[in-house]
Amino acid sequence: MTDTIPHLSVPPSSVAELEAFIDRHEVRHHKIGVFDVDGVLRGKYVDRGKFLSAADKGFGFCDVVLGWDSADQLYDNTTVSGWHTGYRDAPVQLDPSTARLLPFEPNTVMVIGSFGGDYQAVCPRALLGSMVDRAAALGFSVKAALEYEFFVFNETPDSARDKGYRNLRPFTPGMFGYSVLRSTVHHELHHQLLDSMKSMDCEIEGLHTETGPGVIEAALRVDEARRAADKAALFKTFTKVLAQQRGMMATFMAKWSNEYPGQSGHIHISLGDAQGGTNRFFDADGEDGMSLLMRQFVAGQVKYMPELLAMVCSTVNAYRRLVPGMWAPTHANWGVENRTTAVRAIPGGDKGTRSEYRVGPADANPYLALAAALGSGLRGIEEGLTPAAPAQGNAYEQPGEGAVPLPSTLQAATQAFRGSAIARELFGDTFVDHFAATRDWEDREARKHVSDWDLARYFEII
């Protein structure tokens, strides 16, 4: 299916190159899109003339995509978008370098963009760009890679709804992490995922089954931070597309079952020199091969994690994952090669030494989560922070020196975020106020609903 789709090794850098590209590949259908505050891709088809005009001069996209939640319910507490704005068009600038032929649609190209003008301050993609620019101003380039766990089910959107999302049939049964048996028996799915993502320039570096029925983990190849986030956001979207085209469903929600660990979205970051050739996190003479710069970066990530957690764990469900013994952290702490801590320092030599921001769930908006992980680390460098001693062993039982418990609910995390001076310094008042309002809405929507747990616990006994 994907053999005829070329790999975009050198993406278009201008409108002229983009036009030549779509001519060369006989593109007949054109998609344009933006990612909203929840990391959902919103877009549409346009004809060739509109596509090239939008790539050249930008286009208007109804600002409702910044004024509603993932269920298309309108926020009643935001100022950036709402009935008071008349839901006018917000300016969007397309990025030709994001052009990709879609292996799921013949002769179809897609380009993504960022909000501009008055809306730039709340655009997730632009927000990450501002953190990359901040790093550049300090003399650093940024490399990043994201990895995701996702569950696959033998269900369709209709069957899942008909069942009320209960008694869903996993793609494979039982607990079988790193299974060669499962990946061989079901090689068609694994191969199609590998080939499709490679053709879209979202190459998967590693793919394996995880512990749980029907769960798979994919590690995306490292790239410049902005491109890494684009790849992560597109990977999530089109993995779901691929599954549904095969009569299945893939979910990236942080925790779908009480019986199994949650789904992570870990973020790997390293800083290089301005040319990107030297890993500034590596020091052959440093303890564990870590440079002073990396220690300052990790210290910033740990110090500001509780205040920025809402940007990373941005759903009510994400906090179901942050419980002891479920491969997700409960404290803001760090360790060397320690998978029970919130930040894992990975000594990987001059190429692979990096920080792994393990608090991230699979349902996070890649742009916002990476912006938080990067921005907090840069503040650690700017302030010359020194990290506490790394946690040793089981950090659930011994979280380490000075480790601060993470907020345990979205409401608590949002309150901390709204009141955070560092969040406002890094991301601006407009974004902080808008995003905090959207998380207040999310929490309020959740508290309206009676859960199965409520009924089972209180219906008869109380």
Lay out the secondary structure:
Layout lengths: L14 H10 L4 E7 L5 E6 L1 H10 L1 E4 L26 E6 L5 E2 L6 E8 L8 H14 L3 E13 L3 H6 L17 H6 L1 H13 L4 E6 L5 E6 L2 E2 H21 L3 E3 L13 E8 L19 H21 L18 E2 L1 E3 L6 E4 L2 H4 L1 E4 L8 H18 L20 E2 L4 H9 L2 H7 L1 H19 L4 H7 L4
Parallel strand pairs: 1-6, 14-15
Antiparallel strand pairs: 1-2, 3-4, 4-6, 5-6, 7-9, 7-10, 7-11, 7-12, 8-9, 12-16, 13-17, 15-16
Helix pairs in contact: 3-7, 3-10, 6-7, 8-10, 8-11, 11-13, 12-13
Structural class: alpha+beta
Q: What percentage of residues falls in helices of 4 or more residues?
A: 25-40%
How many β-strand runs?
17
Q: What's the helix count? A: 14
Q: Spans with pLDDT under 50 lasting ≥5 residues?
A: 1-7
Largest sheet: 9 strands, mixed
CA(first)-CA(last) distance: 57 Å
The gross shape turns out to be globular
Instruction: Report mean pLDDT, rounded to a whole number.
Output: 96
Share in β-strands: 15-25%
Q: Calculate Rg over CA atoms.
A: 22 Å
